[in-house]
Amino acid sequence: xxxxxxxxxxxxxxxxxxxPPVVPVQHTHAPACHCQTGAPARRTAPTLGVIxxxxxxxxxxxxxxxxxxxxxxxxxxxxxxxxxxxxSLLTPPRQR
Length: 96
Hints:
This protein is an all-alpha fold. The protein has a domain at 53-95. The chain has 1 helix and no strands.
């Protein structure tokens, strides 16, 4: 047919020898701290980040919902004004 798409043939798959297996390299790192205490360090920064991120999500959702409510209100008021104008235009002049 005239409108049927013409696809190019798929590229040929190269035939080569399989690659040798990759051996992972073992890295040894020196300990970051030579502390004698066995207690883990307290991590307050990630907790504050999660709280700040949650607050940002709540504020964003609130702004979006408020904007949608305002848009619906403006649309409803404009439809009401158009209805009143059309009603006044379509009534016979005797009843005005």
